[in-house]
Amino acid sequence: MDILTRDFYHRDTLAVARDLLGREIVRVLPDGTELRCRITETEAYIGRLDKACHAYGYRRTPRTETLFAPPGTAYIYLIYGMYHCLNFVTEEEGEPAAVLLRGAVPTANGDRIAQNRFGRGLEALTPYQRKNFLNGPGKLCRGLDLTRAQNGLDLTQSKNGLYICAGQPPAPACIQVGKRIGIDYAQEAVDFPWRFWYE
DNA sequence: TTCAGGATGTACT
DNA sequence: GTACATCCTGAAC
């Protein structure tokens, strides 16, 4: 079912971040339920030269270890004590770089995703909740029930319960580019246009 | 509709 | 002890 292969991630991180738009995340829960959503927003982080990256300058710690893994690995970490962020490792193994997923829209089992997010079904959501469903990295992980338990998973194997399908990428002209969010501390890197999204 | 403030735990000076 | 790739709530407009 056209799972993206390691070659897809084994490229320049900016190219991968752009190409991930429109792709479909598949998350299989322990009970077999298959959650699906389409990627609408991404950001690139490249340790080699990017002060916003956890592994800036090849900084290696227990947390950043996953960033040095082979391309196509899931890097998931805890942020602000209560939320998780999902990234896909890119480039050569040993080259710490990844794409952060910042936004998505549900394409299958949205009801279950709503349960994970708000503790109630799609029908019961307020307009405000519908509008702000998976439009943030923490929300996305909450909706797909992803935590550090899934850190380090190989995304190229369907058996791991987390993989990416080819989906339907947007026309290049529809892709918007801008500065990344929430990295004010990163000095010159705050202005890097490494965020990609589309409507 | 926007905005300030707080929640909360881990990583790492 | 401080910072953090965030999100929600409630108040003011």
List the helices and strands and how they pair.
Elements: H1 6-9, H2 13-19, E1 24-28, E2 34-46, E3 74-79, E4 83-89, E5 97-108, H3 110-118, H4 127-131, H5 137-143, E6 162-165, E7 176-178, E8 195-197
Antiparallel strand pairs: 1-2, 1-6, 2-5, 2-8, 3-4, 4-5, 7-8
The structure holds a DNA duplex (13 and 13 nucleotides).
What does this structure look like?
It is a single chain. With about 200 residues, the protein is of the alpha+beta class. The chain has a single domain (about 5-195), classed as 3-methyladenine DNA Glycosylase, Chain A (Roll), CATH 3.10.300.10. It is built from 5 helices and 8 strands. It has helices at about 5-10, 15-20, 110-120, 125-130, 135-145; strands at about 25-30, 35-45, 75-80, 85-90, 95-110, 160-165, 175-180, 195. A hairpin with a 7-residue loop joins strand 4 (about 85-90) and strand 5. It binds a DNA duplex (13 and 13 nucleotides) through strand 3, strand 4 and helix 5.
The CATH H-level superfamily is Methylpurine-DNA glycosylase (MPG)
Q: What's the order of the H and E elements?
A: HHEEEEEHHHEEE
Question: Which regions are unreliable across 5 or more consecutive residues at pLDDT < 50?
Answer: none
Question: What is the count of β-strands?
Answer: 8
Key attributes of the depicted protein:
alpha+beta, 3-methyladenine DNA Glycosylase, Chain A, 199 residues, eight-stranded antiparallel beta sheet, DNA-binding
Concise account of the structure shown:
The protein has 199 residues and is α+β, with helices and mostly antiparallel strands.
